[in-house]
Design goal:
By secondary structure, the chain is mainly alpha-helical. It is built from 30 helices and three strands. 63% of the residues lie in helices and 5% in strands. A three-stranded antiparallel β-sheet has the order 1-2-3, with helices on both faces. Keywords: DNA-binding, Repeat, TPR repeat, Transcription, Transcription regulation.
Length: 588
């Protein structure tokens, strides 16, 4: 509530910190940053909030700052009955910003608990950062520009954050955000992927040295392991660690990405739906929903999701590519050609227009125009647009049926470790090459657990036989150990089925005959084991029993106590008491 843009940086930073703090509370589903910020400066009713975000409660407020004083007003609104059930004003010294963030987060959490029921709340939700307030404000300014996600603002934000690092070299956040900015530019085609990742890496390494255990550090490591190192097993490990620390839409989206790369599209959709639930106004989430339908060749269903993504963020570079692809692949090459020809702005700069039109000419058998497009695309192989140029050259040649040329290009891309290899893996345009030996070998080398190029399982009308139950039991146990799926409190039978690529009926039978358990018993056995290991760790001695139980994947006190006693034959309290001294510090 001032004309000073510095106040906007501060207010956005305060809001984001409170969102992150509340998201740490188990059993509390908190809408993520993008969807919350969508309503900034908009006049909106409680009913509209309820319908659009599917939330029962929302919090709104304002910040007024001056040099020596800050006034923060916060009010909580029940969206069902449309009434303000509390309002509070905080007059504080701006120098105590971290204490203020923690105080307001805890105050909101307590009021929520009074209103909606029991929640386990830690004593502290926001950890203080050891930097002067002036530097922290500069950091918020840099992050403000980076989160705009375009090239110009990203570079501006990076330069601000570099100055912050010069002044406070032990402050981990600016390193993570510079890494994020470069990673986003590489992924979005605003910089060559190899160059962007190379620039990002030293900042990530420094952030990890300073703060290895934050959810953001783990998420960044997951990206590196997937897109740079092509090690999906490690990528899942880091992403799941991030999810343990904080339930966030970008973590669910990231795991959905990894599953897509492997061809596990049903599982990918489950995780994406969770991302959309937390952040329904994030353009990238809608784009990715459309992308999954595109990969399954449901082009008519895909297009509205791409259009919704552009409605939310007109500068997002991905949706125009796939709107054109959907038109082309659904038998409308002339309509696709008109669409690509009408594109302006970011889509022109990133080769979408040139590449898309060339693909249309290939489909329309307009040889001369297609060859002209291919020649022009080849001129970009030595520029910053090498990734996009390779992608379109591969796709155009695939449409022309030049399979040997396609494989030669993919071999070059593989040898240069270009991330597009992973993105091309599930592409419907490349399906005609599925049984080409060299192509298949490259895809299986890049992604060993690759369901796109392994022999498809054929399902019988009857369910699993004895040998299959033994085989899939071992496979399921390994998946549970490798991916720690049980740490996800929302895990479902459908999720397990999608990891095994089996129908739900088969997995239900597998659990009953292979393990003599139903789904809940099977998953909660892992959670009890995890709890027993965690609860005795020195680092957890100051946590309550239920805090450790929630960290182990349980989402209900009643379920935890019931299953613990059923599996162990004793209560959690008695278990701790029987482990001499290991229970010290726990609230029984």
């Amino acid at each position: 509530m001032s004309n000073n843009i510095e106040n906007e940086y501060f207010c956005d930073g305060l809001t984001e910190e409170i969102i992150n703090a509340l998201a740490k509370i188990k059993d509390l589903s908190v809408t993520s940053r993008t969807s919350s910020f969508y309503f900034k400066n908009k006049t909106v009713t409680a009913k509209e909030i309820r319908e659009q975000l599917k939330v029962a409660t929302f919090i709104e407020g304002s910040v007024k700052t001056s040099r020596n004083k800050m006034r923060i007003t916060v009010q909580m609104i029940d969206t069902v009955d449309d009434f303000h059930f509390w309002s509070e004003t905080f007059d504080r010294n701006p120098e105590n910003v971290f204490e203020i963030q923690d105080e307001i987060s805890l105050f909101i959490a307590e009021k929520l608990r009074e209103h909606i029921g029991h929640l386990e709340i830690e004593d502290k939700l926001v950890e203080p950062i050891d930097v002067p307030i002036a530097i922290y404000r500069e950091y918020l300014k840099g992050r403000y520009y980076i989160m705009k996600l375009d090239y110009k603002n990203s570079i501006k934000g990076i330069n601000i954050l570099k100055e912050v690092i010069n002044k406070s070299p032990n402050f981990s956040n600016p390193y993570l955000d510079i890494n994020l900015a470069y990673f986003n530019m590489g992924t979005m085609g605003l910089l060559p992927a190899f160059e962007a990742y190379e620039k990002a890496q030293p900042y990530l390494l420094k952030a990890l040295e300073l703060d290895p255990n934050s959810s953001r550090s783990q998420l960044n490591l997951a990206w590196i392991e997937c897109w740079q190192n092509w090690n999906l097993k490690k990528a899942y490990e880091h992403a799941n660690k991030a999810l343990e620390i904080q339930q966030a839409d970008d973590i669910y989206l990231t795991i959905s990405n990894f599953l897509t790369v492997e061809g596990k599209l049903d599982a990918a959709r489950n995780y994406l739906d969770k991302a959309l639930q937390l952040d329904p106004y994030a353009a990238i989430n809608h784009h990715y929903k459309g992308f999954l339908y595109y990969l399954q060749e449901d082009y008519t269903t895909a297009i509205p999701f791409f259009k919704k993504a552009l409605e939310l963020d007109p500068m997002l570079p991905f949706p125009p590519i796939y709107i054109g692809f959907c038109l082309l692949m659904s038998g409308n090459p002339n309509e696709a050609l008109t669409y690509f020809g009408s594109l302006e702005g970011v889509s022109v700069k990133d080769l979408t227009k040139l590449g898309g039109e060339t693909m249309c000419y290939a489909k329309l058998n307009e040889t001369e125009k297609c060859n002209d497009g291919l020649k022009e695309l080849e001129t970009y192989l030595t520029t910053g647009l090498v990734d996009k140029a390779f992608t379109f050259l591969i796709l155009v040649n695939a449409l022309l049926g030049n399979n040997e040329k396609v494989v030669d290009l993919i071999t070059q891309a593989y040898d240069n470790r270009l991330p597009l290899i992973l993105l091309l893996n599930p592409s419907p345009i490349l399906k005609p090459l599925k049984h080409h030996k060299r192509f298949k070998d490259i895809m299986l080398k890049a992604i060993p657990d690759n369901l796109n190029y392994k022999q498809k399982k054929k399902y019988k009308q009857v369910l699993l036989d004895t040998n299959e139950i033994k085989k899939y039991s071992k496979e399921l146990e390994q998946i549970m150990i490798d991916y720690k799926l049980y740490l996800n409190p929302d895990l479902s039978l459908k999720d397990l089925a999608s990891y095994l690529e089996l129908p739900g009926n088969y997995v239900s039978q597998l659990l009953n005959l292979g393990f003599q358990k139903n789904f809940s018993e099977y998953v909660n056995t892992f959670r009890v084991k995890e709890f027993k290991e965690r609860v005795l760790l020195e680092e957890n001695k100051d946590l309550t029993i239920m805090a450790v139980a929630y960290d182990s994947g349980f989402n209900s006190k009643t379920v935890f106590n019931t299953f613990f006693k059923k599996i162990e034959g004793t209560t959690p309290k008695n278990f701790l008491k029987s482990n001499e001294g290991n229970s010290l510090g726990f609230e029984l």
